[in-house]
Each structure stands twice: as C-alpha cells, then as structure tokens.
Amino acid sequence: MQLRIPGPTPCPPEALQAMSRQMINHRGKEFGQLLQSVTARLRQTFQTKQDVLLLTCAGTGGLEAAIVNTLSPGDDILACSCGVFGDRFADIAEQYGAKVNRLNFEWGTSVDPEAIRQALKSNANIKAVLVTHNETSTGVTNDLASISSVVKEFDKLFLVDAVSSLGCIDLPTDDWHCDVVVTASQKGWMVPPGLAMISVNEKAWEACSHARMPRFYLDFAKAKDYLQKGQNPWTPAISICYALDTSLDLMLNEG
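and the corresponding structure tokens:
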C-alpha cells in the first residue's frame, strides 16, 4: 500500500504486529516498564535530557496542552503562521483568552526570523512565541534553528509544533532551546493516531507553575507525577504504546 499523505502514515508490519498483543494492567509493572522504555528512547529522538510526556490524544490535543500548561488568560503571545496549522496553534491560544499577536506569512513561504525579531522589539510584553516547524498544509519547513536564536535573544517562551517533523526532520530540542515541543504518533513515528509526545524543559515547568489557563485531562504536572510511578494519569492507548516501542527500535537501529 502507498498512502501518500502527510499522515496517518503507513505502519511497518512489526508495529502492526506489536499492536495485536493482549491488553495489560495499565497500573501494573509490565506497563510501567513499557512506558519507561518508550519515554527514555523518545528523549534520544527529541535530543533532549528534559522530560518527555505521553498524552492520549491527537497532535492538536498536544498543542492545546502546550498552551494551557504554560500561559494565562490575557498573556501576550506571538503566533507565527505560514499555513493551516500555524493558524490552528494561534486559534487554540485565542480560544483560551490569550492576547494573540499574529505574524502571518504568505502560504508557500517560510516564517522570517527577522520579522520575529522586529515583532519582539516592538512589544516587550510578549511572553511566548508559537511556531510550526513543518507546515503540513504547504510542505514548508521553517528554519527553526534561526528562529530559536531570535527567541532566545529576547528570552521568550518557545512553543514548537513538531507534529509532522519530529521523527523525519532533525530537531535538536535542547541545542535549539525549545521549551515545549509537540509531536504525534501518526506522522514520522510510523504508528497509528492516538498519542501526543511532548518535551517540557525547566523554563517551561517554571511557566507551568504560574499558568492559570484551565486544564484537567491535559495537565502536564499530573502526567509527570504519574510517569514517575510508571503510569499515565488516565487510561492510556496501550496498543499504540506497544507499536511506538517497536517503531522506536526500528528507527534507532537504522539510525
């Protein structure tokens, strides 16, 4: 089968086979070992030493989590968009009461780091910058290294939509000072939809401690607390975790 769309992508036979395994107790030792194995190797692929959390939701749920866990209603943010999914990231923030400053670029072009610099110079109140690494709707990959350099220059929170890039395109999370990076299982990871994988660094955790947007199911703090026990706060997508475990083996073995 040749499924020539950005995602869901075709799954390797090994990942599909892994999904056929019997269910296990998601509060038990076996699942805890699976979860710890997956998150340890996700840190390798994210190229981070920081926390990586698994949420049972689509990539959009992961983007919503990035917003509600780090921001408060009324916060000024700069949302950079060159397509549908950049717009969606901004829309989520707006829905939760953030003051969204939209920096839009013509579809088919990339986000200009210098335009970000000028926007940050003109508004010192901006707390966070939102960027889509790979804009799925147009196929444009933004120069995240240059963008991150500008964001760091102004010491702003940097939230990255890497739903269709991570697993396919190099993204050294720590080296590029990305505070929150969101990806999802059905794109470069070669498994079915259902998991959002999110890296959260110390700067983002500090923002979380002050964030006042409402959250429950998507609460990073709950996810981290349970991860330390080898669990997920809610019933996880066990079969997709099996598939991701297998897919990570394939990816890391191939290099």
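(Above: one complete record from the training split.) The longest strand covers residues 126-132.
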